[in-house]
Amino acid sequence: PAKLIDGKQIAADKRQQIKVKVQELAEKGLVPGLAVILVGENPASQSYVKGKIRDCKEVGIHSELIRLPETVTEEELLAEVVRLNRAPSIHGILVQLPLPKQISEDKVIETIAPEKDVDGFHPVNLGKMMIGQDCFEPCTPAGIIEMLHACKIRIAGKHVIIVGRSHIVGKPASQLFLNHDATVTICHSRTTPLAEYTKQADILVVAVGHAGLIGAEDIKPGAIVVDVGMNRNADGKLVGDVEFPEVSQKASFITPVPGGVGPMTRVMLLENTVKAALASDGRLQSESR
Ligand code: NAD
User: Which residues form the Tetrahydrofolate dehydrogenase/cyclohydrolase NAD(P)-binding domain (predicted)?
Assistant: First the structure.
């Protein structure tokens, strides 16, 4: 049976390291600050935002929650982003998606100053990632790479297959794996037959949002399986895209849902916020990686 990639534990260890770093910075007069904008009352968004604020508190990052009504205009939201771009105590800005339909998400993301774009969704950061420059990497893909590193899993030379091509997970994940010298294949809703591809993966990353999409017959024996999916099953339990019981018998490593990619995503936001704070401070810049 596969070894469990314990994202929850890896993330907890990382939070501890970040806490120490934040204390050091605070002693030098730099308190990293994250602003989170939440529009409307979407229950999932509210719960994500709550988690992000709680994480900040735990490691000593200053956080500000800006709540705006569902009816907010694009102009008002953009004005808020511009205000935060200029706020010296704020180093990272995150606008929780999705946004109501009167607002262009692209426009909002493009208005965030790239140096405060801790979600890594701004075209400048995505472009820099593409050409291998230092940038803010999107949290979910960065968290996946980080958890593989923590388990000492080599990426270079592996055939990595990513199922899903969204702008926040699949596509940036494929670029990050390429930057780590993997051979990368991207599969999506029009890939047929999917299993012919997934069976070739040394590392299989599944980010679709479809419970049970990947079964034991869809993977190669000994594959490393990273399940990004988050779905509610009939009894309201959180499950991934991978049939965990059977796939974990055939894989060599596997991430659980919950307790895998989710906690890693959250901790990478903290890491990006500390990085943004360091980069903003001329005195401490040399400490940023
Ligand atoms: P999305 O809906 O934007 O994209 C889904 C992708 O899956 C698309 O690119 C589509 O082409 C592909 N797809 C759809 N049906 C398919 C099929 N039958 N075969 C192959 N590919 C198919 O989703 P997203 O935002 O990338 O999220 C994917 C999943 O990951 C969701 O369940 C989401 O909740 C979860 N997620 C988890 C985290 C985390 O931190 N754990 C973060 C982001 C998203």
Answer: 138-278
Q: Which atom of ligand 1 is nearest to the CA of 139?
A: 40
What are the tens digits of pLDDT across the range 31-51?
Answer: 999 999 999 999 999 999 999
Query: Measured in angstroms, how far is the CA atom of residue 141 from the centroid of ligand 1?
Result: 12
How far apart, in whole angstroms, are the C-alpha atoms of residue 81 and residue 154? 39
- Per-residue burial over 172-192, b if 16 or more Cβ lie within 10 Å, else e, is bbbbbbbbbebebbbbeeebe
> Where do the domains of the chain lie, and which CATH numbers do they carry?
29-114 (3.40.50.10860), 139-262 (3.40.50.720)
How far, in Å, from the CA of 44 to the mean position of ligand 1?
A: 16
Residue 49 Cα to ligand 1 middle (Å): 20
Find the DSSP H helices in the chain.
7-27, 43-59, 74-86, 105-111, 123-130, 139-150, 170-179, 194-198, 244-250, 261-280
Best mutation site among 147, 166, 265 for ligand 1 pocket (most ligand atoms within 8 Å of CB)? 166
Consult the annotation and say whether 166 binds a ligand.
yes
Q: How many alpha carbons lie under 13 Å from residue 54 in its C-beta half-sphere?
A: 8
Average pLDDT (124-135) is: 97
Q: Rounded to whole angstroms, how far apart are CA atoms 48 and 94?
A: 12
262 residue type, one letter: G
Q: What are the helix and strand counts (H, E) for the chain?
A: 10, 11
- Residue from 181, 187, 179 nearest 162 by CA: 187
pLDDT in tens, 256-285: 999 999 999 999 999 999 999 999 998 876
